[in-house]
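User: Can you fold this complex?
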Amino acid sequence: MASLDDLKKRISSVKSTQKITKAMKMVAAAKLRRAQESAEKGRPYSDKMNNIILNLSNGISDIENAPKLLSGTGENKVHLCVVMTSDRGLCGGFNTNIIKKAKLYFQKILDEGKTLKIITVGTKGYDQLKRAYSEYIIERMSFKDSKNVNYFDADKVGKIIIDKFEKKEFDVCAIFYNQFKNVITQIPQEQQIIPLNNSEKEENSSEDNYEFEPEEDEILANLLPKNISTQIFKAMLENSASEQGSRMSAMDNATRNAGEMVDKLTIEYNRSRQAAITKELIEIISGAESL
Amino acid sequence: MSEEYSVEIVNPEKSFLSKDDVTEVVVPAFEGEIGILKDHISIISFLKPGIIKIFSKSGEESFYVNDGIIEFKNNNLSILTSLILNLKDIDKEKISEIQKSAEEELNKSEISDQEKYLLDQKVEVLKSIN
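Assistant: Here's the predicted assembly.
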């Protein structure tokens, strides 16, 4: 059994860890509220953007000549995966979940004999992927220095993607991020952004006749790159809300576990103290009796 | 019959402005300014750098936009833009900052004609504000 002093030290160290996790939980809770707010505020923009693109792509008569960003290159050989993770750790399964999802996808691509390219956004994703997939990573980015998620960062990522697409470096692009559902659940998402996957196209084909100025294809050509940045921005917002939510529940758990540990250690401490006292008493009594 | 319709301006961060009592909006569309009144035909267009003017019952408001897309449908005007500033509480320094970076961009050699046109516009509009 550990000595009383050792136990005392352990109790105080667990207690100070608990203080840290508790503080981190509070900070995460405050940040979560802000992140959630901005995620909600960002939604109208991406929704409207989607709507307009839907309307526009319905209006395009000549599928053959549709912009490549919409219809794809016609091939399906090189896949670019943008894996978006956080820059900081201690947020539970947040990063691991994205990586797990992404690795499944990577495996599928490689098994099919296609070429894989990876861009990581956020340092944690790079750290986890560099061991197994370092030869595929073509770019790594991190926005550690930006205090809040902002559109210009997203635009930077978007521009890199489009640049690479125009140089014909890949055919299909997918992004990976966590969708924020609530504090406890975040769903890792895989979203294809190039070519644009319009699954709802059929149901939503409205008969609105729009006037276009300039022509549809010219508008689309201008709009699609913006849409990429918008999608990335949306993913970033969702990600930051998810990160804080995940961290909050992870730290909540840690605080609770630390509390349990302190309780257990305190009982052990009291027991051994009592044992020591009893032992001493017995010694005194038997000493007195022998006289 | 009332002559009013609603307008909503959104930027990536938030819904910037939303009004129900607008009588006319003038936007700097790519091929020239467009004034939109009630019951305009459905239209989609995109914007070049310029000034959006919104006329409503409560008065006139002007905004500077960097770029954007507009969609008008069923008497609802949506304006999506990445950068919008209200001319009323505009900050001179910010304007000169944007202007400077646009001018720098303009001096690069490898830009396309279209980009050049847009940047020219931008610089001109910014000069007129300042």
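The mean pLDDT of chain A is 86. The interface with chain B takes residues 38, 41-42, 44-46, 48-49, 51-52, 55-56, 150-151, 154-155, 208-214, 219, 222-223, 226, 230, 233 of chain A (CB under 8 Å).
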